[in-house]
Every structure is written in structure tokens, then in C-alpha cells.
Amino acid sequence: MLKLKFRAMGCQMEAITASESDHARELLGKVPGWFQEWEQILSRFLPDSELTQLNFHPEKPVRVSETFWEVFCAALDMEKESGGLVSPALLNAMVAIGYDRSFEELASNNWIAWLEPDMPIQLPASEITTDPATKVIFLPYGTQLDFGGIAKGWAANKAVERLSVASSAMVNAGGDIAIKNP
Q1: CB-based contacts of 149: which residues, under 8 Å, 6+ apart?
Q2: DSSP β-bridge partners for residue 130
């Protein structure tokens, strides 16, 4: 068994393969780079991330990467499945309650904030204008996205999928755990 611990997406990560083969070792070594690549696309805390760039260009059509599109679609599915409780269109509300920087940068992780029942959400993410053929997203003014845990869960699943070509694998992305046998 091989284990690798590293930090990414603002939390502790761990990847494990059941095999100690050269192929498993090679793939395991790539995991931090995969997370770094995904974070560069999906983080709202990086000023040059793809997500930040989309949020800074309301009312303009923006063509997004395949990775971004995949996570956006997963977020829309979660919004639908949860009846709107989980939504990528909650960034403005998250900032309003004080979650305006990563957990690492918050003065204390002992804060608790609640969304007020009447706190306005500009628009359900499912109503954001998109063009699936070209992977273009058009954010209305006042709507900003945050993928949060959806992105970490997606990344854990994607990483374990890639690792499992060599052996059984497990990825713990700050509590979002994915396990797969080849």
C-alpha cells in the first residue's frame, strides 16, 4: 500500500493505492498536480482561476473548460437533487455571512453563520443561460458562483478514477472521500 498526504483546496488531502507497483507509484505522484490544476480552474479564492474570471465578467458569454463545465453540470444536478439547498449560485450569500476568504485565512474556524431565510439568492443556477454545445456560460449581473464542496467531491472522484487504473484506490479530499476498485 502507498500513501501520499498533501495540502490542496484549503485542506489536508490523502491518496492511497493498494498496489506498490511502479505504475501505482507514478500515478500517486501525480495526484497533487491534478488537484493544483483543478484548484486553478475551480477556486473562488484564486484571483486568476477560471471561476473567478467568470464571476468577474457578468453579462458576458464566457467559454469554459471541459473541467469547469463538468463541475458546473454536477453542481446543477446537486441543486436539482437538493431542491435548491445546494447551489453554486450562493457566493454572494456566503460572502455576506463572512465566508469571504479561505478557511486557512479566517481568523478563527470557530465561527458559525447562518443564511437568513429571506436572504436573496439572485437566481437558481439552473436558470443561468448556457450553451452546452460550446460550453458557454452567461452569468446575469449580481449572480456569482462558488462550487465549494461540489468541486472537492468531484476532484476526489476524478482522482480516484485515475488512480484505479493501477489498483484499488482511495482519496480523501478534506472529508470528501472516494474509493474505487479497478
Answers
A1: 176
A2: 137
- Nearest one of 102, 97, 99, 90 to 114, comparing CA atoms: 97
User: Is it the case that residue 13 has pLDDT exceeding 90?
Assistant: yes
Residue 176's beta-bridge partner residues? Answer: 173
Residue 49: CATH number of its domain: 3.10.520.10
DSSP state of 14: E
H-only helix segments in 3-135:
22-42, 50-55, 66-81, 91-96
Whether the predicted pLDDT of 45 surpasses 60: yes
Nearest to 11 by CA among 160, 107, 148, 114: 148
Q: Domain count of the chain?
A: 1
Q: What is the pTM of this model?
A: 0.79
From first CA to last CA, the distance across the chain in angstroms is: 15
Round to whole Å and give the CA distance between 88 and 72.
Answer: 8
**Hey, which residues does 12 pair with through a beta bridge?**
7
Which residues span the domain enclosing 82? 2-180
| Mean pLDDT of all residues in 34-52 | 91
DSSP conformational letter for 13: E
